[in-house]
Amino acid sequence: MENQFEFIAIEGVIGVGKTSLAKLLTKRRDARLVLEEFDENPFLPKFYNDRERYAFPTQMSFLASRFKQQQQMLSKDLFQQLTISDYIFEKDRIFARLNLDDDELALYDSIFNIMTGISAKPDLVIYLQSNVDRLMENIRQRDRDYERHISRSYLQELSDAYNHFFHHYNKSPLMIINTSEIDFVSNEKHLDYIEEQIFNEPIRGNTHIHIIPD
Fold this sequence. Notes:
By secondary structure, the chain is α/β, with parallel strands linked by helices. The protein is 48% helix and 13% strand. It contains 8 helices and 6 strands, in the order E-H-E-H-H-E-H-H-E-H-H-E-H-E. GO terms for molecular function: ATP binding; deoxynucleoside kinase activity.
């Protein structure tokens, strides 16, 4: 059975491999790729050095960038083919809730609540989970300058926030894949299995948890 999707979004904590999976599936399915433009956020390196001071400008810069992309994704010609993205717009508030103080969050929410109502809705969301040890190792291996200051405690906070968010998520069908013990970048069988679950398995209900077999 072939699931006919127009828009798939892949989500997960920093270092889990969402961008890598989006790129691999895009190539296999001849899809259109939409990637989060985090490298264009001028505040991000400063945020990892001084989280409290730069949280608000970092968050607002991401919000503006992501909303601009959402507007482009809603253009009438975009969904003539499958589109795969490495984020969903709603995830922006996970970071806001984690990093902003009460006054900043109130101001942020006044803008976010307007934007989220007119953002693109995925036909399927894939949430990649991983343990913090694996996330730390992935971040170490890709060795981005501004990510060297990410602490284990921050990753744990973020992982807990993501798990809480997706435990309650019901806006789109949701597939959860635990990636702690798999390598879909280097092991083609793992990627084959993920692709099979996404495109050839019927969706029953809102949440599917698929663990790659040995």
